[in-house]
Design a protein that fits this description.
Length: 212
C-alpha cells in the first residue's frame, strides 16, 4: 500500500469515525455502513483492476461500494476500472505544518473550537447585526502520530471570499502542531487545490474515485 495514501486514510477514518478498516491484497477496505455508502476501498494503480473486481463483488446496493485509486495517470486508471462509474478525481496534498502561513480571523467572526481524542473541530461564527451566531465556516483536523489530516473544510456561500477558509486552516494547523503533528495531509477538489496551493500545500498524487 502507498505510504502517503495509508497515512491519509488513517486520519480521514479518525475524522469521520469510520475506524473499522482492514487491508487485504494491497487494498484497504473501510467499513462505513451508511445506506448510500457501505464500504470504501483504497489502493494503488498497480492493483486497480483487482480492487475493481473486489468493489463490484461487494454485497451492497448499487452505488454504495466505492473505490479510490492513487495514481499519476488518472485517464489510464479510469479505463482500467471499467465498468465502475468514475465519480471524480481529487488531489492528495501535503505540507510541513511549520511552514503554514497564518491568516487572522476577520473581526466580524469568532472562533468556537472543541478537541477530543485527537480530533480538533473548529467553527467560525458570524456576530454581525444580521443573523448573529450563525456558523459561517467549519472544519476539522485529525491527529495520527505526527500527521494531521484536514477534513470537511467548508464555508457557507454567503460568507465566501472573506478569507474564512484561510483563517480556519491557520487555526487548525496551529492547534495540530500543539498536539505534536508536523505534517499536514488532505484531499482537495480542483477548486480547493487553488486555495491550498496558496497556503503552501503541495500536490503529491491524484486519487480517482469510482462507484458501482
Amino acid at each position: 500500500m502507498h505510504e502517503l495514501l495509508a497515512r491519509w486514510q488513517r486520519g480521514w477514518s479518525r475524522s469521520r469515525g469510520w475506524t473499522n478498516y482492514t487491508e487485504t491484497d494491497h487494498v484497504i477496505a473501510v467499513q462505513i455502513g451508511e445506506p448510500d455508502r457501505q464500504v470504501e476501498y483504497f489502493t494503488t494503480d498497480q492493483y486497480a483492476e483487482g480492487a475493481a473486481r473486489m468493489t463490484l463483488a461487494a454485497p451492497h446496493p448499487p452505488g454504495s461500494a466505492r473505490l479510490a485509486v492513487i495514481t499519476p495517470d488518472p485517464v489510464r486508471v479510469a479505463e482500467a476500472l471499467h465498468p465502475l462509474k468514475i465519480v471524480r478525481t481529487l488531489w492528495l496534498m501535503s505540507t510541513p505544518l511549520a511552514d503554514h502561513p497564518q491568516h487572522p480571523i476577520p473581526p466580524e467572526y469568532e472562533l468556537h473550537q472543541t478537541t477530543s481524542a485527537g480530533l480538533i473541530h473548529a467553527e467560525l461564527r458570524h456576530h454581525g447585526p444580521r443573523n448573529p451566531g450563525r456558523v459561517a465556516a467549519t472544519g476539522r483536523i485529525a491527529i495520527d502520530g505526527t500527521d494531521a489530516v484536514a477534513d470537511m473544510i467548508r464555508t457557507e456561500p454567503a460568507h465566501r471570499r472573506r478569507g474564512l477558509a484561510q483563517a480556519l486552516m491557520s487555526t487548525l494547523t496551529t492547534q495540530a502542531q500543539l498536539q505534536g503533528a508536523t505534517t499536514g495531509l488532505l484531499l482537495a477538489s480542483p477548486e480547493g487545490h487553488l486555495l491550498y496551493t496558496s497556503l503552501h500545500w503541495t500536490p503529491q498524487h491524484q486519487l480517482v474515485f469510482a462507484t458501482t
